[in-house]
Design goal:
With 324 residues, the protein is an alpha+beta fold. The chain has one domain: Alpha-Beta Complex (Sulfite Oxidase, Chain A, domain 2), CATH 3.90.420. The protein has eight helices and 16 strands. Strands 4, 7, 8, 11, 12, 13, 15 and 16 form an eight-stranded mixed β-sheet that branches. Strands 6-5-14-9-10 form a five-stranded mixed β-sheet. A three-stranded antiparallel β-sheet has the order 1-2-3. 39% of the residues are buried.
């Protein structure tokens, strides 16, 4: 029998107590909230409750891996969002400072119709869909999450990219007053701000690529990237940039934050690949959040996170160890 001492358990394996307590309090508040509070919002009427708002008029989609959903408490309490801190519990503790209304998204670069859209105007013409996707993070943990959003391809078609647009770059809000992780600190993440990500145009147009505005049928909580984030389910989680304020269409491969910070560890493509290890750990297996028993076997990592049928054709002939 193997007995693990507390100091031998990595901190990343332990759900912070304060996150658990915070979510328990939110559930109590939600149950006590008046069902008569109504507000207008994205996709239809919203029923307001402290900290949580229900989205309306959501269309179910075919995207569902048929796996058990990760609990809401884990989805919203165990996050990577370095703008609010580097610990997994920091976003849930600190993201209350982010003001998400009003919110605008600038469309720039090689498009026929550049403009700055209020978020409601950007989303309103499109039908909200619920899509259940696996999320796989580079630290070898995973979740199954019911996202709510619209295909990025719908927005791209609407703004009409020119023939020079080969890539799409995304930019997160840069506001140290609201985002404490962006403030200079000896204990900071060492990342440059604002956070940048990018996709090749065919990746951006792939039917799986989603602009999410909700989770579990509700508006995105701040710590999950409110009010609008990217979800690219066949790539590691850091590619799914949060709190987007700009979408740029460019001719050359754009800069991305983690590739600029640590190019040996984080490539531009960052496709989930069990055959390409991170320099400091294996990517062959993963831990599903919520399956937390000390002796629970880890899962085998799936190529392209299980979405090979939908995306493998985009990388035919490419050396996926070179273009990691």
């Amino acid at each position: 029998m193997i007995i693990l001492k507390p100091e031998s358990i990595p901190s990343s394996e332990i759900t912070p107590r304060e996150v658990y307590e915070q979510r328990k309090q939110l559930r109590r508040q939600f149950l006590k909230a008046s069902a008569g509070l109504v507000a207008a919002g994205i996709g239809g009427p919203l029923i307001a409750a402290p900290g949580r708002e229900k989205l309306g008029n959501i269309q179910k989609s075919k995207y569902d891996p048929g796996e058990k959903l990760t609990a809401y408490e884990h989805v919203t309490g165990y996050n990577n969002f370095y703008e609010f801190g580097t610990d997994k519990g920091d976003p849930a503790r600190n993201a209350h400072s982010l003001k998400t209304q009003p919110w605008s998204v600038a469309i720039e670069g090689e498009v026929a119709k550049p403009a700055t859209y209020q978020l409601e105007d950007l989303i309103r013409p499109h039908k909200l869909q619920e899509r259940i996707y696996r999320l796989r993070c580079v630290e070898a943990w995973s979740m199954v999450i019911p996202w709510v959003g619209i295909p990025l391809a719908d927005i791209i078609k609407r703004v009409r990219p020119t023939s020079r647009a080969k890539y799409v770059q995304f930019v997160t809000l840069h506001d140290p007053k609201q985002m404490p992780g962006q403030r200079p600190s000896l204990l900071g993440s060492g990342l440059g701000w604002p956070y940048l990500e990018g996709l090749r145009m065919d990746e951006a147009m792939n039917p799986l690529t989603l602009l999410a505005v909700g989770v579990y049928g509700e508006r995105l909580p701040n710590q999950n990237g409110a009010p609008i984030r990217l979800v690219v389910p066949w790539k590691y989680g850091f590619k799914s940039i949060k709190s987007i304020v700009k979408i740029r269409f460019v001719e050359k491969q754009p800069a991305t934050t983690w590739k600029a910070s640590a190019p040996r560890e984080y490539g531009f493509y960052s496709n989930v690949n069990p055959n390409v290890d991170h320099p400091r750990w294996s990517q062959a297996r993963e831990r599903r959040i919520g399956e937390d028993g000390l002796f629970t076997a880890k899962r085998e990592t799936l190529m392209f996170n299980g979405y090979a049928d939908e995306v493998a054709h985009m990388y035919a002939g490419m050396d996926l160890k070179k273009f990691y």
